[in-house]
DNA starvation/stationary phase protection protein (Streptosporangium minutum), 155 residues
Amino acid sequence: MSAITSPLKPEDKKVVAVALQGALVDLLDLSLLGKQAHWNVIGHNFRSLHLQLDKIVSAARKHADTVAERAVAIGSNPDGRASTLASTTEVPQLETGYINDGKVVAAMTDILGSIIRRMRERITATDEPDPVTQDILIEITQDLEKHHWMIEAQR
């Protein structure tokens, strides 16, 4: 069995691998939290939030796959196991049980905002070592910022 070799220098691969793994954890956790909110939201804006959360989950899952495949392409192994997410996530977590629509809006605004801040740090970190990965992270951030705006506008 042969390993996937990286087109990057070893020191650049390390920086990029760390950025990609962090992005993967953020995106997978976002997809799980989005579903948790989707299942438990209550209130006058239930229907619109329920549908909007599914769009966020779909985007997070799509972007997570892109990030994981980029990691493999540079010779790094992505780790999306539940135990890895649980031990490394920096994403704010939701309360349990039913969540009022206003609290869902506030929580998802905070969740998306925290992920966007870290994505922007990763964009900066990957500028020199791998512009290809940086482009992927820029595209993801643009999409997350759109979802952030649409959720935040409901405050």
